[in-house]
Design goal:
By secondary structure, the protein is α/β, with parallel strands linked by helices. It has helices at 8-30, 44-50, 53-56, 82-89, 111-126, 179-182, 198-206, 232-235, and strands spanning 2-5, 33-37, 64-68, 70-72, 134-138, 162-167, 172-177, 187-192, 225-231. Strand 8, helix 7 (198-206) and strand 9 form a beta-alpha-beta unit. The longest helix is centred in the N-terminal third of the chain and has 23 residues, at 8-30.
Amino acid sequence: MIQIHNNTEEINTAAADLFVESAQKAIAAKGKFTAVLTGGSSPDGIYRLLASDAYKSKIDWNKVYIFWGDERWVPLNDDLSNAKMSYSTLLSHVPIPQENIFEMYKDGVTPEEYAAEYEKSIRTVLGEEGKFDLILLGMGDDGHTASLFPGEAVLEEQTKWVDAYYLAPQKMYRITLTAPIINKAEKIVVVAFGEKKINALKEVTTGEYNPTLYPMQLIKPVSGELLFLVDKVAAGTN
């Protein structure tokens, strides 16, 4: 499903409302809400809105569990860290217990070792079903999502929930949720806006199925909902 909005402000509001709705529903049903955050610049406005007085009081943050969809393998105080951005815009401004936050980085271990450890953390919180309540994703200009980049072996992963690998074009390690665990989610929300997203959005949603070239096409929920929140520019309707 694709929702086309006039601008990023409308996208931010729609995403924040969905976050609150999902949180309230999950907490009422089972006493906790499990969410996956995304990095990059796309969610900045969403996180700041959730941290505002108008929104943060709507959620029982003691019952919220936060994970990430992917991360650059850099220390948490590095400006490239998705976690650092999420703390500065959201997590440091809401009353969520630190033990409920699962950053995708740890000193003293390899990315591969921590990928296995991170998967164990997911299983501890979610159980063997591994069904997140809400996953927020961005989409790159090349059609990638999380750290599922075109042409990489991680696209073929079928058993691991979390994987880590060296991304040669960027000369750095990445750690990421894999398509199988993402697709288990109750709700997946993809945020994409701006002119640079036009081609990728068109190919992903209406083009020939070629996930090696456009990895976002791998995201097909098993039983949940997939929702694209885009602006008129990205949708090519402006």
